[in-house]
Design a protein that fits this description.
By secondary structure, the chain is mostly helical. It has a single domain, classed as Ammonium transporter fold, CATH 1.10.3430. Helices cover about 65% and strands about 0% of the residues. The protein is built from 15 helices and no strands. Helix 7 runs antiparallel to helix 8. The longest helix has about 30 residues. The radius of gyration is 21 Å and the shape is globular. The C terminus is likely disordered.
């Protein structure tokens, strides 16, 4: 293995950038809930860093990227259990960075994926049950899906399905899992009749800004080298995000009369989600169209939860699932081998790639939804997954963590 110092430096920086996304997500989600639940929301996201980091180095990295078990592309072996044999090259890769750094980079993806789920179930999860859920979910859902799509020996990878940085593995996976858990735990008390507006929009914007910043490591870092492909992924990421931001607030202006800052932040996230699978496969025209489509369609999709009567509190399904599907499928139209991958329909490649993308979308969505629902139901029927009605009325911060985010008592501001 030849180690390139420039590539290593870039992926070290990218790994740190991707880790920063989870605290950014905590701020983004924390600002969107009511003030009595902000710490409970952020605690779930920070706890995901601790839980998944340990599970990843001991078990799930090996299942996701270890030598294929049985030769069927379904799951890896425990060859890298506890980072044993980490001096060996991961099968199918020709890395120019240390293997242990590749492991750490992929760990950050594994951390943020279950953290995304928390947006769908905001305000009502028992903390201990959440910890149990993400521990098991990381092993039985995230690891096999990552192996199918990301690992060169995975069956969807070998079929030619393209996912540069996690449209299926991260966003579709987390989006449908969030919907499954939301169905199991049920609606928040008072939803949808009672208004539950965000308590801190500046916090939302700060979180969205940190996510946008960290996403350059997420997407451009997935080139695993400091090269032209990383540069194209970087530019495509920013281009699609900008287009999606404008697309979302355009929908708000036409539909509601006024664009909102919450809409701008949500549009940016939708664009980041949609370009994630495509950033290393499309040119800037494709990135612009993907971003614009995501901004418009996700802005419309978030209203579906009312028609479907699913309390997806912070629109994980409408943004991450729908955005991930948009990005994954549009690779089949806008993919070009001039950037990476193969040609899609608009570049003379025919419909073959679109079919492979659709297969990956459907398989990952169905597997993640079914297994997540079964796991959530098992927890719900045994130790319980939802806080009590009294705890929900009081708020997660004081009832679960004996803390408050803000002190508004008579001594507020006193020296």
């Amino acid at each position: 293995m030849h180690i390139n110092s420039g590539d290593t430096a870039w992926i070290l920086a990218s790994t740190a950038l991707v880790l920063l996304m989870t605290p950014g997500l905590a701020l983004f989600y924390g600002g969107m809930v009511r003030a009595k639940n902000v710490l409970g929301m952020m605690m779930q996201n920070f706890a995901a860093i601790g839980v998944v980091s340990l599970v990843w180095v001991w078990v799930t990295y090996s299942l996701a990227f270890g030598p294929d078990w049985g030769g069927h592309g379904i799951i890896g072996t425990l060859h890298f259990f506890g980072l044993n044999n980490i001096g060996d090259n991961p099968p199918g890769y020709s890395l120019t960075i240390p293997h242990v750094l590749f492991m750490a980079f992929q760990m950050m993806f594994a951390i943020i994926t279950p953290a995304l789920i928390t947006g769908a179930t905001a305000d009502r999860l028992k903390f201990g049950s959440f910890i149990l859920f993400i521990t098991i979910w990381s092993v039985i859902v995230y690891a096999p899906v990552a192996h199918w799509v990301f690992d060169p020996n995975g069956w969807l990878f070998k079929k030619g399905a393209e996912d540069f940085a996690g449209g299926t593995v991260v966003h579709i996976n987390a989006g449908v899992a969030g919907l499954a858990v939301a169905l199991v735990v049920g609606k928040r008390k008072g939803w949808p009749k009672k208004a539950m507006p965000p308590h801190n929009v500046p916090m939302i914007l700060l979180g969205a800004g940190l996510l946008w910043f960290g996403w350059f490591g997420f997407n451009a870092g997935s080139a695993l080298s400091a090269n032209l492909l990383a540069s194209n992924a970087f530019v495509n990421t920013n281009t699609a995000t900008a287009a999606a931001l404008l697309g979302w607030i355009l929908v708000e202006k036409l539909r509601d009369g006024k664009p909102t800052t919450l809409g701008a932040a949500s549009g940016a996230i939708a664009g980041l989600v949609a370009i994630t699978p495509a950033c290393g496969y499309v040119n800037v025209a494709g990135a612009t169209i993907i971003g614009l489509a995501a901004g418009i369609l996700c802005a419309l999709a978030v209203r579906l939860k009312f028609a479907l009567k699913i309390d997806d509190a912070l629109d994980v399904g409408g943004v991450h699932f729908i955005g991930g599907v948009i990005g994954a499928l549009l690779i089949g139209f806008f993919g070009t081998k001039a950037i990476g991958g193969v040609n899609g329909i608009f570049h003379g490649g025919g419909a073959s790639l679109l079919g492979k993308q659709a297969l990956a979308v459907v398989v990952v969505a169905v597997y993640s939804f079914v297994v997540s629902w079964l796991l959530a139901m098992a927890i719900h029927k045994t130790i319980g997954f939802r806080i009590t009605e009294e705890q929900e009325f009081e708020g997660m911060d004081t009832s679960l963590h004996a803390e408050t985010a803000y002190e508004f008592g008579p001594s507020f501001g006193a020296p």
